[in-house]
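## Example record

The block below lists the input lines for one assembly entry, exactly as stored, with component labels intact.
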Amino acid sequence: MNLYEFCYGIIHWLVDLINHLWYWLGNVFPWWFGDFFNAVGDLAASHGNIVVFTILLEVLVILIIAVINVLNFIWIDRKFMGRMFDFYGPYYVGFRIGGWLQNIADGIKLFVKEIITPAKADKIGFYLGPVIFVSSSFLALSTIPLGRNFGIATNPSGLGVPASALMAFAFFAIAPFAILISGWSSNNKYTLIGGMRSAAQMMSYEIPMLLTVASVFLLAGSFDFMDIVSAQHGIWFAIPLALGFVIFLVCLVAEVEIQPFDLPEAEAELVEGWTTEYSGMRFGFFMMTSYLRGYIGGALATALFLGGWHGPALIPEPIWFLIKAYIVFVVIEWMRWSTPRVRVDQLLNIGWNRLMPLAMLNLLIAASMKTMGWF
Amino acid sequence: MWNNMGPQHPMTHGLWNLRIKVDGETIVDAEPEVGYLHRGIEKLCENRTYTQIIPIADRLCYGSSLTWSHLYCMTVEDLMGLEVPPRAEYIRVASIEMQRIASHLMWLAAYAADLGAMIGFIYTMRDREVFIDLLQALTGSRITYNFPRIGGVAHDIPPNFERDSLRACDYMEKKLKEYEDLFDGSKVFMMRNQGVGVFRKEDAMNLGVTGPPLRASGVKYDLRKDMPYSVYPEMDFEPATHPDCDCYARYRVRMDEMYESCKIIRQAVRKMPKGKWRAVAPRNAPAGTGLGRVEDPRGEGMMYVVGDGTDRPYRLKIRSPIFVTVSAAKKMLVGYKVADVVAIMGGLDMCIGEADR
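Predicted structure tokens for the full assembly:
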């Protein structure tokens, strides 16, 4: 039983309950109400209605996964940073669980803050920026399966997204567009520079990243996460494509915009970059989504290179997947807290002069492996 | 596009404004504006007695306040013609070298945070604490020490000060090696520093820039050697220079200065003679002038005092190194990227308290 069938079962059971209620009402008021109640009951029990509610339930599952992972990630980030920096990190809020509730306290603080729109901002763009940023990240999240039976938009019953890996990268790459919109519409010089930097940065990392991903597609022979992960049953792609894995990690850091490559929100140069004018929960959404993108990045690296949910069967598949994604995230955080920030022209140099030829070489390696018939 | 970096901007350590004209990301013109923190210290001093000015001189710079009160006391001693006991001179040299290390460490912390390496911020601030603790044991406070007196210092050294100083120097030299691993070993740090903010030797000399930025342009000019004051002639050290003229050279000069300061502290603590640590100073200064020049962590600090026979100075003029250095900002900034502003201006170790006075 996969996640879709599970949700379908729950919704079916609920709809049955409600259905009985409507028919019972139809029996209690048997005059001209009766037909109406019976018709509503039929509608509620129809297959299309159940599918719609099943999908809504899956959306809720995505939301819960996202929120729990984001809270964990912020907590891990703070604790790990604290250990690197010679202090403890949060430990006071929460009942002896290592300050895990600190994030919730911060969230409440952001909720009660005033949301300010600058007087001279472009209202539509200012509002649309966070919406696009958050929703595209959630869409990318929805395509990634956590286990063989834990796919959200990917499931064997044929209702999922075809070519889900391709879709994930397509959704993942929308964010610079949102950053550009919100940077421009804030009507502030720093946010404008931040937005423009984001567009320039995308040019430099996106192509080498997709070339390395293409090498994975080549070895797996599919665009679907399910097939890619099951192709790694024998050997993780990180081993034959070690070069590609390193390139992918570097590009991932640029993609999720954290420390060595966090040029759009370089806090020492551009105050807070493109998020400068956002306050309250709008900023909270940006903050939350940037960590969510960290999780998506870790999940992508896990699914494409680290064997996804494969592991000894002692631990359930989704847990394996999460462990690997968290480890990738911690490695990224390690990079984040120990390196200075590169300059924007240097990032372009790294992207075009270094990563691009290496990604080509990696693709060549993958193609030759495929030609030799090893995969 | 003219862009105001400051007065409220993470790049400005203190309260000042850097207006830059950018073409895309490239800087085509720059104009520093200081004066947001003007407290009228020079005028303030005219209404205080000579002793009351010492804590005001401390407030000139939060990074190296001891140097400034020391400079003030030197200037007034020059005016009064006082002879300072040798023990007091050794205590002063040891304490201002500790202050120099603490100041450079704070610079390194701010510089690392500017470049985005938060780890550098935390580690250097942690190790600065060692020297701040030593100064606290010596003087009783942590930022504004109010320690030198006209004709000596306020207290003798506390017990075990020699042992603790030597240990702190050993610790610091070990930690400096660690910083070199952390920063010089980082490819990104080198990319951000080498060849950035080139400040030619001729420009540096013509604009009157002093201190680490001048020595990083290859000019071997250090008042501790070239116009020795206090007991520096008896110390064995070498002023740090670097020929590269860029941000990396400024970083390197400050790192080497910290090694040299450790050497000076060791010598000063070991050679410290027994005896009095404070001479009796008269309340009224004679009519005349006094001049003092020291090598501040940020450059050459100078004070000029005019006495008129009363217990208050007629005029006190302060020459601030950063006020001169910041006016040379345009020479360094033009032609580089917006992201280099933090590296270049951070590399100058801005302390706006003394620039605005």
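Chain B has one domain: 37-316+343-356. Chain B has a mean pLDDT of 88.
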